[in-house]
């Protein structure tokens, strides 16, 4: 496993369209994302979640401060070179990643990333075969046009293309957007399995607090372009006042726990994030 800590030091950033600069979007952000962690990023719409992730592969460059990704440091002065280096380490799955497909065949699409970073053609072909199987698609799809695939297949091909690059860091911006619950769970389970298998450092933007409960070992909450919370999910979901203030929801199991506690007039011994934890806590309290 590669050590890939991410560190932001007093990072300020905005968007620039020609001569026009947006107001400050990220306001002096400092944080460390631990190597190997699965960190969820939550917060209201417009709070700066996507912008935070864009800093990590150079889609957004700091105006002030610095972003470190392992040994690579991105600042406003060195952005051109450092962003290129960062892109080799950071794989990004956006909302609707299928919109990034472009090549004539699925195989060429998947091979493009590795070859762009110097992997020989024969080896890239081999990688394409491995990753298409890893995402659960049939190898016969490799010779098809990406545009002839179904929506779900396209999304898996896009994910295979990211996997083919062997990133050390995975940046996921609502990767399940627009899928039905079953499809979304399959995508999330696959991404979580890679995270574990490859010892990646993963950041996931999500509006779904059950994703936070199920997958994350750490949560960052953004509000108005600042990080207002960073700790484990149990601590976050214990604090109802904060949850309301930051416009968040609760995981299903935690909601149910609060209802049961009110109706039975008890307080369970732990903050329950999954139904399994809730069942255990109810048994322990003699309520089930
Ligand atoms: N390309 C852009 N140009 C100018 N302003 C932008 C651009 N992209 C985002 N912004 C602004 O930056 C702020 C943060 O946006 P960002 O996309 O990071 O929010 P978010 O937390 O990801 O929201 P959502 O949950 O809706 O995806 C918003 O005020 C938004 O209007
Ligand atoms: Mg966003």
| First-last Cα distance | 42 Å
| Helix content class | 25-40%
Mean pLDDT over the full residue set:
93
Q: Give the CA-based shape.
A: globular
- How many extended strands? 12
Q: What is the number of helices?
A: 11
Structural class: alpha/beta
CATH classification, class level: Alpha Beta
Note the main sheet. Answer: 6 strands, mixed
Keywords: ATP-binding, Cell membrane, Membrane, Nucleotide-binding, Translocase, Transport
Organism: Oceanobacillus sojae
Membrane topology: Peripheral membrane protein
GO molecular function: ATP binding; ATP hydrolysis activity; ATPase-coupled transmembrane transporter activity; cobalt ion transmembrane transporter activity
Condensed summary:
This protein has helices at residues 49-54, 79-89, 106-116, 121-134, 151-163, 181-198, 209-215, 233-238, 240-245, 252-264, 275-284; strands at residues 6-13, 16-17, 20-21, 26-33, 38-43, 64-69, 72-74, 90-93, 169-173, 201-205, 218-223, 226-231. By secondary structure, it is of the alpha/beta class. 39% of the residues are buried.
Please give a structural write-up:
The chain is an alpha/beta fold and 288 residues long. It has a single domain, classed as P-loop containing nucleotide triphosphate hydrolases (Rossmann fold), CATH 3.40.50.300. The protein has eleven helices and twelve strands. The strands form three sheets. Strands 8-9-10-5-11-12 form a six-stranded mixed beta sheet. A hairpin with a 2-residue loop joins strand 2 and strand 3. Helix 4 packs across helix 5. The N and C termini lie far apart (42 Å). The site of magnesium ion has 4 residues, from helix 1. This is Energy-coupling factor transporter ATP-binding protein EcfA2. Pfam families: ABC_tran. Its main location: membrane.
């Amino acid at each position: 496993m590669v050590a890939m800590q991410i560190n932001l030091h007093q990072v300020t950033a905005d968007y620039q369209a020609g001569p026009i600069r947006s107001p400050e979007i990220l306001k002096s952000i400092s944080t460390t994302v631990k190597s190997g962690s699965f960190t969820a990023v939550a917060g209201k719409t417009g709070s700066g979640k996507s912008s935070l992730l864009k800093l990590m592969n150079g889609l957004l460059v700091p105006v002030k401060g610095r972003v470190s990704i392992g040994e690579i440091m991105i600042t406003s002065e060195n952005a051109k070179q450092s962003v290129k280096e960062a892109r080799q380490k950071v794989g990004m799955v956006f909302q609707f990643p299928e919109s990034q497909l472009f090549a004539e065949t699925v195989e060429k699409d998947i091979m493009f990333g590795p070859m762009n970073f110097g992997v020989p053609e024969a080896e890239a072909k081999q990688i394409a075969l491995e990753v298409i199987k890893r995402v659960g698609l049939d190898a016969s799809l490799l010779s098809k046009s990406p545009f002839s695939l179904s929506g779900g297949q396209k999304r898996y091909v896009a994910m295979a293309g990211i996997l083919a690059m062997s990133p050390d860091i995975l940046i996921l911006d609502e990767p399940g957007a627009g899928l039905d619950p079953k499809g979304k769970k399959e995508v999330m389970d696959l991404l979580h399995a890679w995270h574990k298998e490859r010892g990646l450092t993963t950041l996931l933007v999500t509006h779904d607090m059950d994703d936070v409960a199920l997958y994350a070992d750490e949560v960052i909450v953004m509000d108005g372009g600042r990080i207002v919370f960073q700790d484990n999910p149990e601590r976050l979901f214990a604090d109802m006042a904060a949850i309301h203030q930051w416009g968040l929801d609760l995981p299903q199991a935690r909601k149910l726990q609060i209802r049961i506690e009110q109706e039975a007039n008890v307080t369970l011994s732990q903050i329950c994030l999954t139904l399994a934890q809730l069942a255990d806590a109810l048994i322990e309290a003699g309520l089930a």
